Amino acid sequence: MTSWSDATKVHEYVGRVGRLEARKEGERELVEVLPQRVRHAIDLGCGDGRLISLILDARPETTRVRGLDSSAPMLELARNRFADDERVTIEEHDLNFPVAEPEGTAGTAGADVVVSGFAIHHLRHERKRSLFEEVVGALHPGGVFANLEIVQCATPELDAEFQRRIDRPGGDPEDILAAVEPQLEWMRDAGLVQVDCNWRWRGMALLVGQKPA
Ligand SMILES: C[S@@+](CC[C@H](N)C(=O)[O-])C[C@H]1O[C@@H](n2cnc3c(N)ncnc32)[C@H](O)[C@@H]1O
Questions:
Q1: Which atom of ligand 1 sits closest to the CA of residue 51?
Q2: What architecture is domain 3-94+110-210?
Q3: Of 97, 152, 174, 186, which cross-links 179 as Cys (Cβ 3.0–4.6 Å)?
Q4: Taking the model in full, what pTM does it have?
Q5: Pair type for strands 88-92 and 64-69
Q6: Structure confidence by residue, pLDDT tens digits, 150-178
């Protein structure tokens, strides 16, 4: 069990992140890399569904979105947010375990885009790497992986300054941060191409790759 099962932490987070200018910038960049046509999308560690809303606003023709998260209070917020939207399914799933297609959809569930927002840094590095391979397996050829993420700053001092600026002094003891470069390598190793860090502000980065067409 992680601290994300704590409703107080979840509500504090949800109230704080929407006010962060840098986050909004990162989200604008994420929208920029969405494929022109999105039918199926997946959000890994979807939280209250903030990124799913961004996708649906930017690509209203989207027919199906899966949001995965393990936190009960986050799942409740996301389910409430999309209660009237049949396109969205919010699933309880621990990302430490393989991400599989829902039963009965094998072969039909390929995603045009897999997104994640500030979630994968909670996983051990080995699991980050195997998750990137699963992302490639989940994408259609040509599909996009866009991971808006907390990354390791170059020095502890820079990290402390970053945490101060996002109003989180001391950081989060559950973070397992990796620097940008190794993560880009892991994404390439997983089979993604056109891999790059498209945007960065201090300890926030948008890591993007594409499944070969
Ligand atoms: C910082 S919040 C980000 C939420 C949302 N993606 C956003 O962009 O605002 C981190 C999210 O990752 C989820 N998370 C952390 N570890 C997880 C795991 N092992 N499996 C599934 N979700 C996890 C938490 O429950 C939480 O919703």
A1: 8
A2: 3-Layer(aba) Sandwich (3.40)
A3: 152
A4: 0.96
A5: parallel
A6: 999 999 999 999 999 998 888 889 999 99
- First-to-last alpha carbon distance for the chain, in angstroms, is 38
58 Ramachandran zone, left/alpha/beta (phi>0; psi -120 to 50): alpha
How many angstroms is it from 46 CA to the middle of ligand 1? 6
Alpha-carbon span 209 to 26, nearest angstrom: 16
Residue 4 near residue 71, CB atoms below 8 Å = yes
User: How big is the chain by its Cα radius of gyration, in Å?
Assistant: 16
For the CA of 71, the nearest atom of ligand 1: 25
Task: Name the residue at shortest CA distance from atom 7 of ligand 1.
Answer: 117
**Domain definitions of the chain by residue range:** 3-94+110-210
Give the distance (Å) from ligand 1 centre to CA of residue 148. Answer: 12
